[in-house]
Design a protein that fits this description.
4 helices; globular; 44% helix; four-stranded mixed beta sheet; Ribosomal Protein S5, domain 2; alpha+beta
Length: 130
């Protein structure tokens, strides 16, 4: 489980990330995952890990225990990349990450989820450089 400071719970941040992501194209997608992100404001000098949320909708799987399994796999794969978020100067600009599962994820293995997440983070790093 993520620490309390890393969990995204504020409704206004969800709404902001979704609205800005749709307007300004601050979203990335792969065959398994969709990623919405927000950049940190310039005046925030304290660098910390981005607030993160994992969403698996009922359209992915009707049974809650299967949705929770997918969320656990997503969280575990994210933990692998936390060090990259801390150490990479370009990714320090990110304040919010929202990972949303696509329907293809229910048949995916952990390695496939991890590879998809790594691919999205690499693309996000390239966008943050610009």
């Amino acid at each position: 489980m993520l620490s309390k400071t890393e969990r995204l719970k504020e409704r206004y941040l969800f709404n902001t990330a979704f609205s800005i992501g749709k307007k300004n194209g601050q979203k990335l997608s792969s065959d398994l995952l969709l990623l919405y992100y927000l950049f940190r404001k310039k005046r925030e000098s304290e660098v910390k890990l981005p607030k993160t949320a994992f969403i698996v909708g009922i359209k992915v799987e009707k049974k809650a225990n299967k949705r929770n399994l997918v969320k656990r796999r997503m969280r575990s794969a994210y933990r692998v990349f936390r060090e990259r978020l801390i150490n990479n100067n370009n990714l320090k600009k990110i304040s919010v990450l929202i990972w949303i599962a696509n329907q293809n994820i229910k048949n995916a293995t952990f390695k496939q989820i991890k590879d998809s997440m790594e691919n999205l983070l690499r693309r996000l790093e390239n966008k943050a450089c610009d």
